[in-house]
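Researcher: I'd like a candidate sequence for this fold, 635 residues long. If you have to choose between options at a position, lean toward the conservative one.
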């Protein structure tokens, strides 16, 4: 059967989740585009990029960041709202903010502030450390700083003082007790605060992060607290300091209907608070704008709306209710972090090997001297036919159970069990092939055999460090070999990481024909002479910052790549990943103390004549070199 790039596109669904940034070229390599114009001649070939990076001395796994994609996503979001505002004759402006919690990596935050300056992109911070980042990076007075999260007096005081240096800092009251702290800081410093109220909506989002919304969410003021808060501000002469209403219905909201429902309720809150005397200027509809991780439009890992549809609904719904209530249109704020940064990063790693379960292996001849179960397996092998596939499959499953029991009781020795294991695996492979070639429908049988024969591809990365949402939330990311798409991928595999943990397995992948994930990835046969590279896409949101140091695997090497008309691309920055020594320091093992202890033990071993001086020096050298080396495997 001939195979071409178009078939690979359908198999991996890249046109559903990758448009407009990712595609396959005629060589069968994944390419990266910088914008929605899709100029293929300017695309970056990921395989060529990885090979170039390796020649420069960088190691896999590696995280590749594309600032130009960030720029395009910022432009696209603001264009969508500008289109909606113009078409609706909306009287307010759009003033988006990036939630720093989505990815606090310095280079990314700096790029976003720089790229978003002309649009007035601001920053949202949910903690005191994030506020410090925002205050140091937002230097343009157009960009808002929205302060959310739990706050103590120091947090509030810092936000208040920043107003004197020209920062547009809005302190959002997430808990009712914070209001008294704002008033206390105001009285102490005689600086008029800029206040927002976060409303706890009855409406809630759907999807994996819906628990952060609704009446049981940990943030937000109830209707009675909002009314009481307005009363207190009036008494303190600060009602005109209440400028913003904020709400949030969760991250990655898959359904536009949930967004519309929350918009209506949020706009009603806004109108009612305005009529209580607070001349609100801003309505912050929070996050939720989703990303098409699988492209199905019908799952928690996708959305059933476009960015433009989202912007249209935000603008239209708020305008309609404001007009109905005869109040001015507010400036609109979204906290769309995931949609801004997810596309900008790609994780690439190499495959180290596989367990080859889907391969027929040579077996020894069976004689009358062999145990009956081995002879039974030989009989199935000799008389296997298309019309007896189901019968042979069920017999095989029973023999497999019998072999386990016989081995446990000591009837079969290890060598006999090993021979039986190879024969059983070979039979599963042959049954699978016959079932696939048959005109009869063996769908359920093939599905069961795919479960059994799915190979494990051992990969040079840590799931816990680089894809924590896949492990913790069953988030599905697009996973695709970055090359060989002119060849048919005849293997099916799960991807096993380097950690000593059975959970360190990537086993949920996009099924382009369904909204439900499949538990295997179509991959190619490994070539012992050539590396095999796999990319995980749309990893720019949350994955870096939530990474876990399981087995002390640290941050990967990262590079920043921009598009260049003359050279196609330029590597403008390299961020080296963690060394073993740095990871040990994180858990309070000081490398100098470890070296000292090792040297003392080597000296004792040499004095006891159980180790030579040469061996001692070599071990110490290896130990010291390892402390400075990458935490991942060299190939």
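Model: Candidate sequence:
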């Amino acid at each position: 059967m001939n195979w071409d790039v178009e078939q690979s596109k359908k198999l991996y669904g890249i046109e559903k989740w990758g448009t407009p940034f990712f595609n396959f070229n005629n060589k069968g390599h994944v390419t990266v585009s910088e914008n929605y114009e899709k100029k293929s001649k300017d695309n970056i070939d990921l395989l060529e990029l990885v090979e170039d990076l390796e020649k420069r001395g960088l190691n896999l796994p590696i995280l590749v960041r594309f600032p130009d994609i960030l720029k395009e996503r910022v432009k696209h979001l603001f264009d969508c709202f500008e289109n909606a505002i113009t078409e609706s004759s909306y009287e307010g402006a759009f003033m988006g903010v990036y939630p720093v919690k989505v990815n606090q990596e310095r280079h990314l935050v700096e790029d976003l502030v720089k790229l978003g300056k002309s649009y007035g992109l601001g920053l949202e911070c949910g903690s005191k450390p994030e506020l410090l980042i925002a205050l140091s990076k937002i230097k343009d007075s157009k960009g808002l700083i929205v302060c959310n999260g739990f706050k103590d007096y120091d947090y509030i005081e810092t936000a208040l003082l920043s107003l004197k240096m020209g920062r547009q800092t809005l302190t959002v009251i997430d808990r009712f007790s914070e209001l008294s702290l704002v008033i206390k800081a105001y009285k102490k410093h005689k600086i008029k605060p800029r206040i927002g109220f976060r409303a706890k909506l009855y409406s809630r989002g759907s999807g994996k992060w819906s628990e952060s919304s609704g009446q049981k969410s940990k943030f937000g003021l109830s209707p009675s607290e909002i009314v009481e808060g307005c009363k207190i501000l009036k008494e303190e002469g600060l009602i005109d300091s209440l400028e913003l209403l904020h709400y949030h219905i969760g991250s990655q909201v898959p359904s536009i209907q949930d967004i519309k429902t929350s918009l209506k309720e949020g706009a009603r809150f806004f109108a009612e608070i305005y009529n209580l005397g607070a001349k609100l200027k801003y309505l912050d509809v929070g996050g939720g704008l989703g990303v098409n991780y699988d492209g199905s439009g019908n799952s928690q890992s996708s959305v059933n709306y476009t960015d433009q549809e989202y912007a249209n609904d935000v603008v239209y719904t708020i305008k309609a209710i404001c007009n109905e209530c005869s109040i001015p249109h507010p400036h609109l704020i979204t906290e769309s972090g995931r949609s801004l940064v997810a596309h900008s990063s790609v994780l690439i790693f190499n495959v180290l090997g596989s367990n080859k379960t889907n391969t027929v292996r040579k077996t020894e001849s069976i004689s009358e001297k062999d145990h009956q179960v081995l002879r039974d397996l030989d009989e199935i092998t000799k008389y296997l036919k298309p019309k007896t596939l189901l019968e042979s499959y069920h017999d095989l499953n029973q023999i497999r159970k019998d072999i386990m029991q016989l081995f446990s009781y000591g009837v079969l020795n290890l060598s006999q069990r090993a021979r039986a294991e190879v024969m059983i695996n070979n039979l599963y492979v042959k049954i699978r092939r016959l079932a696939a070639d048959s005109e009869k429908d063996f769908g359920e049988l093939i599905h069961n055999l795919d479960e059994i024969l799915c190979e494990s591809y051992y990969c040079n990365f840590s799931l816990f460090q680089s894809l924590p949402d896949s492990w913790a939330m069953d988030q599905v990311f697009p996973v695709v070999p970055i090359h060989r798409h002119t060849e048919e991928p005849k293997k099916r595999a799960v991807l096993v990481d380097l950690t000593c943990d059975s959970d360190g397995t990537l086993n949920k992948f996009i099924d382009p024909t369904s909204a439900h994930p499949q538990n295997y990835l179509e991959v190619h046969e490994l070539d012992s002479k050539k590396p095999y590279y796999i990319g995980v896409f749309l990893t720019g949101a949350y994955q870096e910052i939530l990474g876990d140091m399981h087995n002390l695997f640290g941050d990967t090497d990262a590079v920043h790549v921009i598009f260049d008309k003359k050279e196609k691309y330029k590597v403008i920055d390299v961020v080296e990943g963690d060394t073993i020594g740095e990871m040990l320091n994180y858990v309070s093992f000081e490398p100098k103390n470890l070296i000292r202890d090792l040297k003392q033990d080597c000296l004792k071993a040499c004095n006891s004549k159980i180790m030579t001086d040469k061996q001692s020096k070599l071990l110490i050298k290896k130990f010291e070199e390892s402390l400075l080396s990458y935490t991942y495997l060299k190939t």
